[in-house]
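Quick one: structure for this chain?
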Amino acid sequence: MRINSAYTNLPPAFFFSRLTETVSRYAADHPDRRLLRLGVGDVAGPLAPAVIEALQRAVEEQSRTETFHGYQPETGTDFLKAAVAAYYRQRNVHLSPDEIFISSGAADDLGALGNLFSAAARVLVAEPAYPAYTDVSRMAGRTILHLTANRENSCLPLPTSDTDADLVYLCSPNNPTGAAYTASQLLQWIDWANARQAVILFDAAYEAFVRDADVPHSIFELPGAETCAIEISSLSKTAGFTGMRLGYTVVPDALVRDGCSLRGMWTQDRTTRTNGVSYVLQRAGEAALSPEGLRFSRERIAGYQENGRILSEALEKAGVWFVGGRNAPYLWLPCPDGRSGWDFFERLLETAQIVVTPGEGFGKGGEGHVRLSCFGSREDTEEAAGRLLTFFQNGVS
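Got it. Here's what it folds into:
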């Protein structure tokens, strides 16, 4: 039997298990100490009342023969596509239903979109990065090129005259760094991609956290993106759907490579490989994008943004350089004294009882850094900010 030997090139899947085991062991050994968890990338819930009501109505429909719904269209229902299109129109982006593809979450499409490109396609990843970008590329046996996001470029690397690749993963606002490209910076990537006939796979999972006017929510707000970009987004962070799994991908009609419509190819891929997302979930997504659902989500996101402000102020007072915390629910900072991310993670845990995420989980470019999350409660965030300030002011030993 011949297997896909590219899987043997994947790094061991031990990062999060090691993280969880270390925290669990510390908590068991120190039951009297209150842990403050700034490492989690999950939302705090609950879902919006409008979403719960839509779920209940849809489930009730499934209980009656005359309103029962079986298989749904593989690329999504008309009603949810209309809701997504209306959401984009708020940013003056006008999409046709055929350009919108409903998915079971951004992670699924981020991996599956590679099906559209040959194994010879060279992939450019700005690191530190969401691990799936490199892992799915390794699974396909592709050559991966790395572009480092660091303090010198404010974690927002830009293409140069010798940057050469066929595909590039961009995530803005970024996980894990929290940095976000401005319109002028994204235009440089768009011009680069169009000039080289490359394709940008644009991860917009955190677009709902954008609050600066010069930071686009969608790459399609910018001219030229429709001929070089695919955008992947999700309701996970927008509406708290991390446990629901619902997202959407936009593949423009104008995106053509080697004489082939990528929208047409993606339609063929989805109708071959999937049977669509359930009717119940799609009704929930429609409610999440309704005025009532969006109002609830924006209030929740405003709370996470306030957590970002609180953590940012503590780091500023401590004189610590960082990025993020404003247009994204993450802050990214270098470890003091040249420590590794794992070493600093353990030091914060033991000294301040704060849980963060070591940067090593996000590729080589993440080494020597840690990520802080804004998804905790206000009480925990305020206490964690105080502990961080004390920790840095007392010096790291």
